[in-house]
Amino acid sequence: MQAQDYIFQATADGSISLLEPSLQELYHNRQGAYTEALMNYAAPTLALLSLQPVKESTFSLLDSCFGLGYNSLTCFDSLLSFRKEGRATSLKGISIKALDIDYDLCQASLPLVLKQRCFKHIASLDWLNTDSFQPGITFDYMHDDLHFQSTFSTSDLRQYLKNEPEDTFDVIYHDPFSPRKVTELWTLELFAAYKRRLQPNGSILTYSAAPAIRGALRQLGFHVYRTTAVGGKSGGTLACLQDLQDYLPLLSNVIMPLCEEEESRLLTTSGLPYRDPELSLTGEAIRIARLKEQGQIKND
Ligand SMILES: C[S@@+](CC[C@H](N)C(=O)[O-])C[C@H]1O[C@@H](n2cnc3c(N)ncnc32)[C@H](O)[C@@H]1O
């Protein structure tokens, strides 16, 4: 598809999103594509970075379902702000693996997305453009004293995760369409495959607050927290291999414990995960199996 074939729409904060006609779903929260990327992904990432003794190393990010690229781009833009304030200055680099099944979308949207005013630092960087996210080609750039590295993988997420881990990540952004619509990308087995690709203190961030998703992450041994709500939504989810309990007072408004009601829902059948043992079932088969497990429909 060409850029003119996509239906771009402005969201409430002025940043552009896209309509997915077959699912009748917007790619982002109507309150703001940029705001959602900031609250659910970039701000918690920087909060986590600020907790670690600042590393003389590269921060490594997997951005699954990269789409228009907001999550990675907002993270990078915020990181540059952070460093201007004198924080995380000994971080040597950021490495972004962007993954999406649709590369045409990335190519068509990046020129529009990157030049928006919401990006205080990166909108003026002429070296950051569509060429920075090319399938299978690693892009390298030294920006001031920060090594920026990126690559794009045109893959189906489940196929990608079926391969043995070649690379590991500090943080994984998980941003498919909703669990109701693409259930096959929200299963316990998919999160287990992510876990095998995480560094020992690594984390997963997603906009979803669904008990089925949080229940799966808990079963896998993650510490599960809530991120800031955007619009009427209830906040996203941070799943962390590190226990953040002692740090929570420092992270208020960015990373929070689940509230009592959220905790109690995880103990009901709502907290039962979607299952896909071989990462191969259809979304419908996965939904039906869970409804049977919940006792909402009878076994054949
Ligand atoms: C909600 S949008 C992501 C928005 C994006 N993170 C952004 O910042 O613009 C969901 C994305 O999932 C991608 N997608 C759908 N099915 C996929 C699959 N099986 N594997 C990988 N990506 C998939 C779509 O192409 C779409 O870009």
What does this structure look like?
It is a single chain. The protein is α/β, with parallel strands linked by helices. The protein has one domain: Vaccinia Virus protein VP39 (Rossmann fold), CATH 3.40.50. The chain is 29% helix and 22% strand. The strands form two sheets. Strands 6-7-5-4-8-9-11-10-12 form a nine-stranded mixed beta sheet, with helices on both faces. Strands 1-2-3 form a three-stranded antiparallel beta sheet, with no helix packed on it. Strand 4 (58-64), helix 2 (70-84) and strand 5 form a beta-alpha-beta unit. Helix 1 (33-51) crosses helix 2. The radius of gyration is 19 Å and the shape is globular. Residues 27, 37, 65-71, 100-102, 105, 156-157, 175-177 line the site of S-adenosylmethionine (SAM).
